[in-house]
Write a structure and sequence with these properties.
Strand content: 35-45%
Structural class: alpha+beta
Distance between the termini: 24 Å
Largest sheet: 4 strands, mixed
Number of strands: 4
Number of helices: 3
Length: 78
């Protein structure tokens, strides 16, 4: 599976999530399923070099949309 970056707006806050999915539409639908009130701004493929410099706050696994703590710890999200 490929990693996608999903930008969304929750109330007055902007969030950026990393999702593992088959394609961009499925990544957006996974986010919308977990955050139905969110407005999705964009979806793009993860750029390993650029994303490593600016890590995302939360990585979502493909299994149930729950945070993958091992990936977050590796990227320093917490």
């Amino acid at each position: 599976m490929t990693e996608y970056i999903v930008g969304l707006r929750l109330g007055k806050r902007s969030e950026v999530l990393t999702i593992e999915a088959e394609d961009a539409l499925i990544a957006a639908l996974k986010v919308k399923h977990n955050h139905p009130e969110a407005f999705i701004s964009y979806v793009r493929k993860s750029n390993r070099r650029g994303d490593r410099r600016n890590p995302q706050r939360l990585l979502i696994s493909a299994f149930g949309g729950k945070p993958d703590i091992s990936l977050c710890a590796a990227h320093g999200c917490f």
